[in-house]
Amino acid sequence: MEFYTNGIRVWAKDRGLDKANPINQLAKLLEEIGELASGVNKNDRPKIIDSIGDAYVVLTILAMQLDLDIETCVAYAYNEIKNRKGKLVNGIFVKEEDLKGE
Q1: Tens of pLDDT along 14-70?
Q2: In DSSP terms, which residues pair with 93 in a beta bridge?
Q3: Which of 54, 84, 86, 100 gives the lowest tally of CB atoms within 10 Å of its CB?
Q4: How far apart are CA 53 and CA 67, in angstroms?
Q5: What are the beta bridge partners of residue 92?
Q6: What domains sit in the chain, N to C, each tagged with a CATH number?
């Protein structure tokens, strides 16, 4: 994964994307997420794979633009969830503290 992430960084820097406006990158991310939703709704596996990959590329570049790195962001998120307890509600994981009202 490191090979690809570093390749994304080089590709982005070569094109000046690392210094571009993160608002535009956020718009690109939403576009990619829309494509992912379409792929999931249509059960189009190649489109799903492409969209998840595209979203990772866009997130990696967005992190660069915000002076972060994707690995730090993923590690932070993982450390937030690794011991999280909860349950599936209608197919969605709901964390324990959000279940208090049930």
Answers
A1: 999 999 999 999 999 999 999 999 999 999 999 999 999 999 999 999 999 999 999
A2: 88
A3: 100
A4: 21
A5: 89
A6: 2-99 (1.10.287.1080)
Q: Residue 88 pairs with which residues in a beta bridge?
A: 93
Please provide the size of the chain in residues.
102
Give the pLDDT confidence score for residue 29 in this predicted structure: 98
Residues 6 or more apart whose CB falls under 8 angstroms from that of 38 comprise: 44, 47
At residue 59, what is the residue type? L
For 54, what's the count of Cα atoms within 13 Å in the CB-facing half-sphere? Answer: 19
Place of tokens 């962001």: 73
Cβ–Cβ under 8 Å, residues 20 and 65: yes
Give, in degrees to the nearest 5, the angle at Cα 95 between 74 and 34.
Answer: 55
Cα–Cα distance measured from residue 50 to residue 82, given in angstroms and rounded to the nearest whole number: 27
Tokens 């709901």 -> residue: 94
Residue type, 99: L
Cβ of 32: how many Cβ atoms within 10 Å? 19
